[in-house]
Amino acid sequence: MALEIERKFLVDHTQWNALTKPVPNYLIQGYLHSEPGKTIRVRATNDKGFITIKGKSSSDGLSRSEFEYEIPKKDAVDLLEKFTTKTIEKNRYEITIDGNVWEVDVFEGANAGLIVAEIELESTEQSFTKPDWVREEVTSDFRYFNSALIENPFMNW
């Protein structure tokens, strides 16, 4: 079974905006199925498509089962258009710090104003360097799950 071990943090807007950043990858995603402990997500990026199945998060929110498969981008776009009613849009920046990749999502649309940084780890005990622009950890705060943001967008908080 594939296991995702991930930590999620809010980003300081001022420090983030002052950084020189790589070119982002635009993402649009929606859910074919979403309930507590089980989601099936479709994502289209600049040039690829993906389908992802995620299981229930551990009690500390750090890990869960995850199966992700690349699919043709056209199929991802068709699935989003025909089988989802809501989508999330964001620009994703990948920044490597001390050998670890941080994925920073700058949300658009109903979630504009939200910037979240995630780091995937090999184990729950793995140490990592937190950049200066990383703030409060929100790993176990369900509101920041994309499946929750699609139902209760950041602009409604």
Describe, in short, the structure shown:
The chain has helices at 13-18, 73-83, 146-149; strands at residues 3-11, 25-35, 38-44, 49-55, 63-71, 88-97, 100-107, 115-120, 134-137. By secondary structure, the protein is mostly beta strands.
Would you write up a description of this structure?
This protein has a single domain, classed as Hypothetical Protein Pfu-838710-001. The mean pLDDT is 94. It has helices spanning 13-18, 73-83, 146-149; strands spanning 3-11, 25-35, 38-44, 49-55, 63-71, 88-97, 100-107, 115-120, 134-137. The termini are far apart. The protein is built from 3 helices and 9 strands. The chain is mainly β. A hairpin with a 2-residue loop joins β6 and β7. The longest helix has 11 residues, at 73-83.
Primary descriptors:
mainly beta, eight-stranded antiparallel β-barrel, 45% strand, 157 residues, 3 helices
What series of H and E elements makes up the topology? EHEEEEHEEEEH
Secondary structure tally: strands: 9
Shape: globular
User: Can you tell me the CATH architecture?
Assistant: Beta Barrel
What is the strand and helix layout of this fold?
Blueprint: E1 3-11, H1 13-18, E2 25-35, E3 38-44, E4 49-55, E5 63-71, H2 73-83, E6 88-97, E7 100-107, E8 115-120, E9 134-137, H3 146-149
